[in-house]
Write a structure and sequence with these properties.
Layout (H helix, E strand, L loop, with lengths): L15 E4 L5 E3 H7 L13 H7 E2 L2 E7 L6 H5 L8 E7 L5 H9 L10
Antiparallel strand pairs: 1-2, 1-3, 4-5
Function: May regulate transcription elongation by RNA polymerase II. May enhance transcriptional pausing at sites proximal to the promoter, which may in turn facilitate the assembly of an elongation competent RNA polymerase II complex.
Family: Belongs to the SPT4 family.
Main location: nucleus
């Protein structure tokens, strides 16, 4: 069963942001309009301030994943269960504590970045 893919970034300039939980990469406007396909519980499309809290422009590298379940790179990056899309290799910021609490309440795993 194939998952519906995430939006592909419409630009690869400075407006790109990565979700701090799943590392999905899209533009700020795309997160504001449709949220994060892997993290709908953050409700970014309903609260535009949340886009800034849940995403970061500071990340390293990107990878496009077409079939996460069959990709060794997706498994290695721990994104094998996410929707097809564009992801960053690493984020350097941690999810704020109040958003980590939302993850816990939803029984969603959050792995903070390594320092």
């Amino acid at each position: 069963m194939a998952s519906a893919p995430a939006q592909i970034p419409t630009s690869f300039g400075h407006e790109l942001r990565a979700c701090l939980r799943c590392r999905l990469v899209k533009t700020y406007d795309q997160f504001r309009e449709s949220g994060c396909e892997n993290c709908p519980f953050f409700k970014m499309e309903e609260d535009h301030e949340r886009v800034v809290d849940c995403t970061t422009p500071n990340f390293n590298g990107i990878i496009s994943v077409m079939d996460p379940t069959r990709s060794w790179a997706a498994r290695w990056l721990r994104i094998g269960r996410f929707v097809p899309g564009v992801y960053t290799l690493a984020v350097s910021e941690a999810l704020p504590e109040d958003l980590q609490t939302i993850c816990e309440d939803e029984h969603i795993q959050y792995v903070p970045p390594k320092r």
